Amino acid sequence: MQLHRSALEGDRLALARLLTEIENDTQAGQEALNAVFKRTGKAHLVGVTGAPGTGKSSLVNQLAQYYRKPPTGEQPRRVGIVAVDPSSPFTGGAVLGDRIRMRELSGDNGVFIRSMATRGSLGGLAAATAGVVQALDAAGYDLIFIETVGSGQVEVEVAKLAHTVLVVDAPGMGDDVQAIKAGILEIADILVLNKADRPGVESAERALLGMLKLGHPTKRVVHHGLAGEVPAADAELAAANEWIPPIRRTIATEGQGIPELAAAIAGHRLHLERSGDWQRRDLARLQNEVEDLLRSQLMERWRDQVDERVYNSVMEEMLGRKLSPRQAAAALLNGRKAS
Amino acid sequence: MPQKKTRADGKRIRVLVAKPGLDGHDRGAKVIARALRDAGMEVIYTGLRQTPEMIAEAALQEDVDAVGLSILSGAHMALVPRVIQLLRSNGQDKVRVFLGGIIPDEDVPKLKELGVAGIYGPGSHTQKIIDDIRNAVGQAA
User: Fold this and answer.
1) Residue A220 CB neighbours (<10 A)
2) CB distance B7–A25 less than 8 Å?
3) What is the nearest CA distance from A316 to chain B, expressed in angstroms?
4) Cβ neighbours, 10 Å, residue B128
5) Is the distance from CB of A193 to CB of A171 less than 8 angstroms?
6) Which of A125, A305, B99, B115 is the most exposed place for a label (fewest CB within 10 A)?
7) Mode of pairing for the β-strands spanning A79-85 and A190-193
8) Rounded to 5 degrees, what are φ and ψ at A96?
9) Strand A143-147 relative to strand A111-117: parallel, antiparallel, unpaired?
10) Is B60–A23 a contact, with Cβ atoms under 8 angstroms apart?
11) Res A217 pLDDT > 80
12) For residue A55, what is the DSSP state?
């Protein structure tokens, strides 16, 4: 299979076709992932999540442009973007519309955008997203944005995949009870308050700050009341033992607040490297992937050896309320003889 | 017995739906995008005012099976050949191109000769378009 070699050498069509093989979980795709794995681990993976319509795609568009034309003295980064949108649970079809907001990135060979449908996965990503990200990493994209589906409260898979998670919020998305619920806000490394020119931005920021304070009661120093509270300088944040998610206001459609957001992302990366969290997250991510694979392969192995008559008789006993589901599972696992 | 997951289920027809040129009427393109979605395809929708270069680049990165262009401005004889040429020079010879919009009858033979797989004016049935795409990419369902 030459596809992955060409892809790693910079052939963009080969890379696109490789991503299709990975997405379809073909044998060729699986073998290519095995072959390229040793070249992965260099990219900074940045997850971008948040409710539908908060401006995730616009924000990714602006950040990518920033990293392509960084302030003087910095090298442009090669940017990969994986944008996930939902598949229909009924037809399996999907409309993937994240590129609409990314038209400015067209014509730049240092950017590669791939849209993915969830194909039945819950959690905000597709099953093959991790593999697609690995291929982009191996192909030399050193900054990879992973944009989830518009997420509600429990689509937190991206936290297992990314090094740095941006949770995007916007004014008017709900009262402050939303901010203390468990779930998506807990996974934020950086909170982005987009559409900061909209009314209600002050109260939205207050709600997010309140939530952060509850999570880190002694760490945050209040300087001049809530409105004037300035998050610690990014370097200072990075040096601390504990990372306190900073809040950054942005207006993605105008590019406002993007350099400040990029500084926070750089600060978080520095923190990960200094604290050892980079390796810890890498390990946790790979462990998670191995466990997923083990789960499906063990299931398949069990399926291959289970006696169909045993299976049917256990199901019958369960339907007759003689066995609970837990007892049925135990009976099947312990290989009960056909009765 | 529990069903085995079959790998072949993974493959989906991927279609890029784009509006090249300057006219701003994208209702037709959205109707098509929705119809293809309901037919189980994955539609990458790029929105208005796309250049042929943008369309070819998106088709490449997304590794699509087909490209649907919607043109109402009358610029199809300039835009469509350019898109097809770019797709070919990128190595995507197998990507089939479909065209919708206001296309005068006398242009149809020329466009077909250029390699356009199907042309659909007002009143076309979405089912016909779906069937044509499935047949053209060799995946009749």
Assistant:
1) 15
2) yes
3) 12
4) 11
5) yes
6) A305
7) unpaired
8) -105, 110
9) unpaired
10) no
11) no
12) -
Count A/B contacts: CB-CB distance under 8 Å: 98
Degrees to nearest 5, angle at CA B67 with B63 and B72: 150
Q: Is the pLDDT of residue B9 over 80?
A: no
User: Do A284 and A160 contact (CB within 8 A), yes or no?
Assistant: yes
* DSSP track, A81-150: EEEEEPPPTTT--EEE-GGGGGGGGTT-TTEEEEEEE-TT--SSS-TTHHHHHHHHHHTT--EEEEEPSS
pLDDT at B140: 42
pLDDT at residue A236 in the model: 62
CB burial readout A272-303, b (16+ within 10 A) else e? beebebbeebeeebeeeeeeeeeeeeeeeeee
Q: What is this structure's pTM? A: 0.88
What pLDDT score does A337 carry?
55
Which of A13, A27, A300 is closest, CB to CB, to B60? Answer: A13
C-beta of residue B46 within 8 angstroms of C-beta of residue B54: yes
Q: Provide the token pair at A67.
A: 């990293």
